[in-house]
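I am writing to request your help with a piece of structural work I have in hand. I am sending you one protein, given as its amino acid sequence and as whole-number tokens for its backbone shapes. Kindly check, if you would, that the fold set down in the tokens agrees with what the sequence suggests. You will find the record immediately after this paragraph:
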Amino acid sequence: LQIALIPALFWTFAIVSFYLLFNRISRDRLESFLMLAPVLIPIIGIVPPGYGFFPFFLSFCTLPLLLHLFFKSRLSQKRIEFTFLILIFIIFNVFLHPLTLILIVLILLGMEFSLKMVTRFKLLNVSKIEHSYTLILISSIILLMWNYSIYLFISENLRQIWFFLVGNDTDSQYTIISNMTSSYNVSPVDLIKLIINLYGQTIFIILISTFCLLYIYKKNIRSYYLFISISEFLLAMITSFIVFLFLYSISFNRIYIASIPFSLILIGFVSYNILKAKDSNKLARNLILSLLILVLILTLYFSVFNLYPSPTIKKINQQVSRGEL
């Protein structure tokens, strides 16, 4: 019972953390609500309590608060205090799951790159925003220290530590899936159906986020948080695609998960702008909102039915079916 309560506590912690994050970067409560509402959909990484005890899920639940503290530390006069809190969470995270710390380092690098681009091309006035070189350096050192401790614990060389992190399989996820579909002679229609059943919620979230990117580009909207969200979303997409093509043991979903907070920011921001737009065509605005709601409903549908293993997604159900009795 005590173990079952831990995921529920972390899930509640994640919801509260998302609220703090979105409340900080949003313009009013309506925009904050539009960002927060999709969090309740059990999309990849954000699953309801009782689903299971998974260290990576628990560590991901701390990511929204880390982002909230990071934004506070960059724009607040108490930068050192907030940075110290971030380091505590980073040390805590490396013991939960080291892959989350790798994602955190990548997110921090992406934010620093975004800040460089904004400064170089003078897209925004970011003179008051502090750089995060020290935080990136300390996070990297903590990650290296963890690697070294694993090295001492298992008494193996660095190559075996790499295999411990990413596995020793030579085939990528893409290669394995391609070989399976060709060996079983799966028709294109069945393959598309299986992909939608397996990754429907991921596909629809990416589609909504892509639409939001196009909307922001067309409207030429500029905002520091928006620019960060776009950069981090694209970085996560590119990295997860590379992992899908070249690695096996690390699922690309575990990299894609880093884009979820930023996708929610984009969705909430664009939805708010469409609702508040006074000079736009009313019919076009209602049509766009209806399409967004429809896609979110489809995302909810696939999220619920893909949550547990079942024959629909070609996985063995842990429950005994009526036909097996």
Remarks:
- The mean pLDDT is 76.
